[in-house]
Amino acid sequence: MRLLSALLVLFATTATAAAQTPQPQGTAAATSSSSDSPTLRAIPDGPGRAVAELQGLDKVTARTRRFSAPVGQSTSFGTLEITVGDCLVNTPDAPPEAAAYLTIIDHKPGQPEQKLFAGWMFASTPSLSALDDGVYDVRVLACTREQGSSPSSR
Fold first, then answer.
1. Which stretches does UniProt call biased (Low complexity) (predicted)?
2. H or E element: which one contains 88?
């Protein structure tokens, strides 16, 4: 029981440090994060483009939307501009996990842009490193490859 508790504390400490440490976009982020967690790696090569599957909640309208955000590009959700710098998944021999480096900027009309979040979000523990905003919640669901040309927004 003590060993399990110690491992949980170690995981939470490592994940929190990784979530709070800003990483540059691109390959350097994947290399740095991969060395912190030997099981996290880039999305395996395959057809389609690498995307982060995200879920957004608009607290004003109480509506949720699941959408894909391509790695290296910006996506809009309400007044938010969400940029995915990198998206990592666990190796097949480890428990399922996805982590995405997100930069979230709010572009409210008539106000200067405001950076709300920049850091790693983890699919298995969304409350560990979450967007803390009065209007929106955003969480990572998975890192995958998007097939075809039609967007998976709902």
1. 19-39
2. strand 80-90
142, two tokens: 């998975």
For 100, other C-beta atoms within 10 Å of its C-beta total 27
Residue 27 CB contacts under 8 Å (≥ 6 apart), including other chains: none
* CA–CA dist 72, 87 (Å, integer): 10
* Ranges of H-type helices in the chain: 2-20, 27-36
CA distance 107 to 114: 7
Distance CA 21, CA 101 (A): 10
Mean pLDDT of 11-37: 43
Residue spans of the domains in the chain: they are 2-146
pLDDT in tens, 26-42: 433 443 443 456 777 88
pTM: 0.69
Which is it for strands 74-77 and 80-90: parallel, antiparallel or unpaired?
antiparallel
Residues in Cβ contact with 32 at an 8 Å cutoff, skipping those fewer than 6 apart:
23
